[in-house]
Write a structure and sequence with these properties.
Number of strands: 8
Order of helices and strands: EHEEEEHEHEHEH
Shape: globular
Helix content: 25-40%
Strand content: 15-25%
Distance between the termini: 78 Å
Radius of gyration: 20 Å
Structural class: alpha/beta
Strand order of the largest sheet: 4-5-1-6-7-8
Number of helices: 5
């Protein structure tokens, strides 16, 4: 386990607003890589070496070269301003660790579903659990050099709602990973504005109904 901090950024003692984002997805889609590439501190990783004992448990189709795996979660941090920080949690991808996801989703502002377009079916569970919890999310297709798919093909394969943003990224690249997080934050802001307008409209409608006199017979 790696929990040491780097010299790139010191922890801010004045930070008192912590915003939580979770990166989820199937096994080997690049969640640890994304957290590592975008975090301003040296991330905490719970990676362990894969052994033959797990061969009969983990589905290694398409990821035969993978030699280590996350067994709990990854953790990184980004400072937004003097008092606000963004905490990133990368969820483990193997099915045997899915029981941890519900706890990781607790208090989450939103999520990134990272997918490998060569193995789109591996993303179904992540999307299902987020929808179950009512957690807003976006989908980011990590570049593994596989066959190209159109946005429509990916949306149909994942049964994505038209209002769920879909972007491409390279999880190894810091600027690309930052773009994914910015897209998520913009999506969350848009949802917040829409909810506020809906509440205002409902309130105005209710007040209008209260002021309307009942008809006399």
């Amino acid at each position: 386990m790696d929990s040491a901090t780097s010299d790139r950024a010191a922890l801010q003692a004045t930070a008192d607003n912590g915003l939580k984002i979770v990166v989820v997805g199937g096994f080997g889609v690049g969640k640890t890589t994304m957290v590592r590439s975008v975090s301003e501190i040296r991330p905490l990783n719970t990676e362990e070496t894969m052994t033959r004992a797990g061969e009969a448990v983990d589905d290694l189709d398409g990821v035969h070269s993978k030699s280590s795996t996350t067994v709990a979660f990854d953790f990184g941090r980004i400072t937004l301003d003097a008092r606000s920080v963004l905490y990133l949690f990368g969820a483990p991808g193997q099915e045997r660790f899915w029981f941890l996801w519900d706890r990781l989703f607790s208090g989450t502002l939103g999520a990134v579903v990272l997918v490998d377009t060569r193995r789109l079916a591996d993303s179904w569970y992540a999307i299902d659990r987020l929808e179950h919890h009512g957690t807003p999310f976006i989908v980011a297709c990590n570049d593994f050099g596989g066959p190209l798919h159109t946005e429509q093909q990916i949306r149909e394969a994942l049964d994505l709602s038209p209002d769920v943003p879909l972007v491409e990224c390279d999880a190894r690249d810091r600027s690309s990973s930052k773009y994914v997080l910015i897209t998520l934050v913009e999506h969350l802001h848009a949802l917040s504005v829409a909810r506020a307008k809906g509440a205002e409209a409902a309130l105005a409608g209710g007040q209008g109904a209260a002021l309307t006199p009942e008809p006399t017979l």
